[in-house]
Write a structure and sequence with these properties.
The protein has 361 residues and is an alpha/beta fold. It folds into two domains: 218 residues, Spore Coat Polysaccharide Biosynthesis Protein SpsA, Chain A; 138 residues, Hexapeptide repeat proteins (UDP N-Acetylglucosamine Acyltransferase, domain 1), CATH 2.160.10.10. The protein is built from seven helices and 31 strands. The strands form seven sheets. The chain has a seven-stranded mixed beta sheet with strand order 5-4-1-6-11-8-12. A seven-stranded parallel beta sheet has the order 14-17-20-23-26-29-31, with helices on one face. A hairpin with a 2-residue loop joins strand 2 and strand 3. The radius of gyration is 21 Å and the shape is elongated. The chain starts with a strand and ends with a strand. The structure holds guanosine-5'-diphosphate-alpha-D-mannose and magnesium ion. It catalyses: alpha-D-mannose 1-phosphate + GTP + H(+) = GDP-alpha-D-mannose + diphosphate. InterPro entries: GMPPB_C, GMPPB_N, Mannose-1P_guanyltransferase, NTP_transferase_dom, Nucleotide-diphossugar_trans. Belongs to the transferase hexapeptide repeat family.
Amino acid sequence: MKGLILVGGYGTRLRPLTLTQPKPLVEFANRPMILHQIEALANAGVTDIVLAVNYRPEVMVETLQKYEKEYGVSITFSVETEPLGTAGPLKLAEKILKKDNSPFFVLNSDVICEYPFKELADFHNAHGGKGTIVATKVDEPSKYGVIVHDIQTPNLIDRFVEKPVEFVGNRINAGLYILNPEVIDLIEMKPTSIEKETFPILVEQKSLYSFDLEGFWMDVGQPKDFLAGTVLYLSSVAKKNEEKLAKGSNIVGNVIVDPTAKISPSAKIGPNVTIGPNCVIGDGARIERSVILANSTVKEHSLVKSTIIGWNSTVGRWCRLEGVTVLGDDVEVKDEIYINGGKVLPHKSISTNVPQEAIIM
Ligand code: GDD
Ligand code: MG
């Protein structure tokens, strides 16, 4: 089987992390975001994976090559000279996606869930339509593509409305599809939106179905949702693979800690925290609902709450970080500093308080 991951875009909504690292390589639960997807595709029997990118992919090529062997997949980079949107990349990768008659998967690179690809393929093959969209329910559907059903035929999609201005329903496109190769014939080789241009044609042809996702789902393309997605992911790990969670008298609730991290026994970590490789957490530090990326240090008696600490950063002693604060790569926060909702660009040193949401350049 084959799969294409839409990796384009600059990940601007996940700045400052994406100023130094392409979004798909930002670690979610201590592994590059895209690796969660590559692994799930491989487990479902996919052998050919296309990564559709619209920037120079050198860093990604280097990082991902080693996983081809590990997961037994071939990874091809399909590079656009201008951004081709969410449908154009399928046309560009036509050769690989049409190499046999079997349907192929398409994934938005920023969605996290339990990826039920096998069940999706079975469902798709059984209904006989040209495409199937994975659907999930959300409270705030206006940010997404909304699916409206045919009353007579269960799961047949009657309308697809991308980013609706008026409420039409709360079942949304989870950003995961399986499509027959012939769908590529509906796409022209130019910037095209699959949501706005291709899906409406399939709806018209009564050939687009939806498959209900079980369990959690989150688009983790912005900091607030990245943290919320981490919480959901950790509770799913707690249910399925509890052995992956950290244990200890200084750990509360669902926490993942890389084995190379050093955490003081008098620190208190959790719930809902991930701590990356080579991190150091000092005496009496308190961390909750936060993501600490590789090689970062939180010194003694600091509180880190609802915060993402980028790589190679240092938080001093007696600091307080909260309110969806995000530190970029190589940031230094001096002792006793308060940051509430600050987004700190890479290589900065912070020596005055940031009491309100602000971008620190
Ligand atoms: N290769 C390539 N080229 N990829 C692109 C391009 C492009 O020009 N533009 C966007 N992408 C990728 C993004 O990197 C992302 O993985 C995916 O296409 C979707 O783009 P987003 O910018 O994240 O879209 P969205 O989150 O506003 O909406 C989409 O996702 C929702 C689910 O999270 C839509 O598919 C919605 O219908 C859906 O509900
Ligand atoms: Mg998105």
